[in-house]
Design brief:
With 269 residues, the chain is α/β, with parallel strands linked by helices. Helix content is 48%, strand content 13%. It has one domain: NAD(P)-binding Rossmann-like Domain (Rossmann fold), CATH 3.40.50.720. Helix 3 packs parallel to helix 4 and helix 4 runs parallel beside helix 5. The two termini are 33 Å apart. 39% of the residues are buried.
Length: 269
Amino acid sequence: MATGKHIVITGSTKGIGYGLAEHFLRRGCSVTVSGRGLEAASQAAARLRSKVEAANVLALACDVTDSVQVQQLWDRSVAHFGKVDMWVNNAGWSGNEGMVWERPAAEVASVIATNVIGTVFGAQTAMRGMLTQGFGAVYNMEGMGSDGRKHVGLTMYGTSKYGVHYFSESLALEAKGMPVIVGSLRPGMVITGMITERYKDRPADWERVKKIFNIIAERPETVTPWLVEAMLANRKNGAILSFSSPWKLMWKFATSPFVKRDLFTSEQV
């Protein structure tokens, strides 16, 4: 069923962002696909246009750590589609795995800037525009660390996502009673390049962790349709839309001896 809504998704050239874009389009929405570079955004848009109504896809470049570019992302999306019904702050990256004291200063700054400052700039821009137009929804992508759990070697990423969680809750409080709702997305463990690239030079570690990933993780095409449907249905300000849960995780471990999965080939076994 077509919705007629227009969605802007930052960091949507691959992974979860791309999966969100594809399912929103399949639900009859129009989507602005964006990434740091126009080439990547254009290539992602071309793949999407081969599957859905081509006129419903706009490709734009946006570095979310630059507030001017974020504002341009809003302005050009509105100029093209007339409105923005939903803004999804998805752009982010984990940095390389390693102890805090081992991480280069530039990498630390980039992780915090992309995940935290980029989310703040996106939310600021979307809130201003949506309050002016009188409607809309802003969703921020949480991740490992949002719930306070720790993962050795990914401290800066977890710190940034804990910050996103605080920011989302506080922003929802500030938006209370206004015509814009604020929510958070928790996709759980999803196999994307952000995860696999960390192990490209560590084959032994990869073989070890792959066994765990095959139990607890999911592919983007499993998670993103659920998130899209949850966002389209949600009317509650401050909602946390979580694909995973402790019960689901317990069930995966309990059934793992009987249900063998391989998330890293074209088919599950």
